[in-house]
Amino acid sequence: MNADVFLPHIARIDAVRDETPDTKTFALRFRTPEDSEAFRFLPGQFVELSVFGYGEAPFCIASSPTRPGAFETTIRRVGTLTDALHQLGLGAEVGIRGPFGNGFDVGGARGKNLLFVAGGIGLPPLRSLIRNVMDERDQFRNVTILYGARTPLDLVYKDELKEWETTEGIEFHVTVDNALPGWTGNVGIVPVLFTKTTLRPENTIAYVCGPPIMIKFVVQDLLKRGFQEESVISTLERMMQCGIGKCNHCAIGHRYVCRDGPVFNFKQIREMVE
Known about the structure:
Layout: E1 9-20, E2 23-30, H1 33-38, E3 46-51, E4 55-60, E5 71-76, H2 80-87, E6 93-100, H3 106-109, E7 113-119, H4 123-135, E8 143-149, H5 158-166, E9 170-176, E10 186-187, E11 204-209, H6 212-224, E12 232-235, E13 251-252, E14 255-256, H7 257-260, E15 263-265, H8 266-273
Parallel strand pairs: 7-8, 7-11, 8-9, 9-10, 11-12
Antiparallel strand pairs: 1-2, 1-6, 2-5, 3-4, 3-6, 12-15, 13-14
């Protein structure tokens, strides 16, 4: 991409998919082949997305670098900018800066068991890595995905969840806090799913993403079950703003979440807040 990190590149909305009543997935494709060719990212990285006339904000990349072409981001409508974005249709143009951040260490995960624990809109950042893993499945050992949301309506990627349930070599469990008529699956917060699977702390990396309160209790539970702090990975992307460590909005101690993260292991996170 352009060396000027302040200059957005123009991308068009290639497709829009409704995920929940307030969340959509946007497939974006750069206007020029040169920008498309130059855009390279890692799972866990993010972009700064501009809706012209409304501003910009950071959003995770929800697709995998193993699937080139249009890239995806999943966005909940929570304010003026995201409301404006949700009003845009196919062919509308937005600005993209990035990718930014450190991303997940895919190479370091090869040959290990992988545990993904996500809550609500915390699944999109992990989806990028999950898809990467599925496309290179022979490079990893056991893969377990645990996902929860407030209600069945709040589950994102509903069709994809059904695929994960039946994909050979993937163990998948889902739960909701509150069931609705017709729901026959698990009911309860995400940690209840730990009883559905055999957790293997040895040679396992756990990736956790979701609401802060969910992350807190999931991490506590994993540590009690023998996981090492360095093997529990999460993101702190909700604290970011400019994306390049200039605005100080995401500064925690001597680290900038946008520049040094947003991916951190729990030992790093603990040291940052102590």
